[in-house]
């Protein structure tokens, strides 16, 4: 439905449709895995319905009465100048507005004593516990480090703050690399961090390779979900399989992972350790922390039983003898 009325009324309509879509009661889940699949189906079903409310923009501007100025948010999300005519779902448009506000505000990262700003579609480092792990585990004076799947560039920034002299940050997303470049420039770390658009590893070898892949092995339904879901553990396993041959002598690979997938039943408890061993790697140290985000204590969340027991870990890995 192409909406041509009042913008604020359109938002009320979207809220009402969303509430109606959520009204259908969930079936009792026998296992956490059942609860997860039901949760995902409800998310997808809600999106399929609510995305049908559309608005039209002319050169990034909305002619609906009481509409806010959308140009900055839309062009920030598109990464380019707004086209002459653009039809968007209202739900996506509101997401762009919210992302633009967060982009301007940023998230304060204690390890770098500064804010990191996430672009639309790039995962924001709002869950700071994994960065705390990277900031506190033993660092054996690496000269060259790689940050695999850099996103906002926050891990690279933490490594430079810990006095790593050269960091190569990789990502397959041009959007993420633009975001990382802006953060690196803002932090004045350009002389220490270089960016490479590639899948997983750049050319050469490194003393330290750090990777924080998406934690849940599940199907991706939208581009934004690539930050959350890793279908068939592709990135996780690709990192483990390739790390050993790219480490310098006495080098380390750091894997940052949550055990939420194991708690839900998406991975077996021994899968990760088996994959580490099969890749010719061994664990030097495993540092753990508990989540601090609100969903870990929200008992109304369908995945509360798993989230309340979640542990985030940093695995320091080396080539096995």
- What is the CATH domain class of the largest domain? Alpha Beta
CATH fold label of the largest domain: Rossmann fold
**What's the tally of helices?**
11
Topology, number of strands: 12
Please give the CATH architecture of the largest domain.
3-Layer(aba) Sandwich
Number of domains: 2
Mean pLDDT: 93
The helix/strand order is HHEEHEHEEHEHEHEEHEHHEHE
Shape: globular
Name its key features:
Rossmann fold, seven-stranded mixed sheet, 36% helix, three-stranded antiparallel sheet, 2 domains
Descriptive notes:
- By secondary structure, the protein is of the alpha/beta class.
- It has 2 domains: 97 residues, no CATH class; 209 residues, Rossmann fold.
- The chain is built from 11 helices and 12 strands.
- It is globular and about 65 Å long.
- The mean pLDDT is 93.
Please give the structural blueprint:
Layout: H1 7-21, H2 32-50, E1 54-58, E2 61-62, H3 71-78, E3 85-89, H4 90-105, E4 107-109, E5 114-116, H5 129-136, E6 144-148, H6 154-161, E7 166-171, H7 174-186, E8 193-197, E9 206-211, H8 234-243, E10 247-258, H9 260-264, H10 271-278, E11 281-289, H11 304-307, E12 312-319
Parallel strand pairs: 6-7, 6-9, 7-8, 9-10
Antiparallel strand pairs: 1-2, 1-3, 4-5, 10-12, 11-12
Helix pairs in contact: 1-2, 3-4
Write a compact overview of the structure shown.
The chain is an alpha/beta fold and 321 residues long. It has eleven helices and twelve strands. Helix 6 links the parallel strand 6 (144-148) and strand 7.
């Amino acid at each position: 439905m192409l909406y041509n009325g009042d913008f604020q009324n359109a938002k009320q309509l979207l809220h009402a449709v969303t509430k109606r879509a959520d009204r259908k009661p969930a079936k009792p889940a026998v296992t956490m895995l059942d609860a997860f699949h039901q949760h995902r189906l409800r998310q997808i079903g809600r999106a399929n319905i609510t995305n049908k409310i559309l608005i039209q923009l002319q050169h990034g501007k909305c002619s609906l009465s009481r509409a806010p100025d959308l140009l900055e948010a839309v062009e920030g999300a598109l990464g380019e100048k707004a086209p002459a005519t653009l039809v968007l779902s209202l739900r996506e448009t509101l997401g762009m507005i919210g992302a633009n506000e967060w982009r301007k505000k940023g998230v304060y990262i204690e390890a770098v004593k500064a804010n990191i700003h996430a672009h639309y579609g790039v995962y924001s480092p709002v869950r700071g516990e994994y960065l705390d792990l990277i900031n506190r585990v033993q660092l054996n004076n690496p000269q060259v480090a790689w940050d695999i799947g850099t996103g906002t560039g926050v891990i690279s920034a933490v490594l430079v703050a810990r006095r790593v002299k050269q960091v190569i940050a990789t990502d397959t997303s041009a959007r993420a690399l633009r975001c990382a470049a802006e953060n690196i420039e803002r932090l004045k770390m350009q002389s220490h961090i270089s960016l490479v658009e590639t899948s997983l590893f750049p050319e050469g070898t490194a003393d330290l390779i750090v990777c924080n892949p998406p934690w849940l092995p599940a199907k991706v339904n939208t581009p934004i979900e690539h930050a959350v879901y890793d279908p068939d553990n592709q990135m996780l396993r690709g990192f483990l399989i390739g790390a050993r041959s790219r480490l310098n002598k006495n080098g380390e690979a750091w894997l940052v992972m949550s055990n939420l997938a194991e708690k839900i039943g998406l991975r077996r408890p021994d899968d990760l350790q088996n994959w580490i061993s099969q890749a010719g790697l061994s664990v030097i140290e495993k540092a753990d922390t508990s989540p601090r985000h609100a969903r870990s204590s929200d008992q109304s969340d369908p995945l509360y039983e798993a989230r309340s027991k979640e542990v985030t870990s940093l695995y320091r890995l080396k080539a096995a003898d």
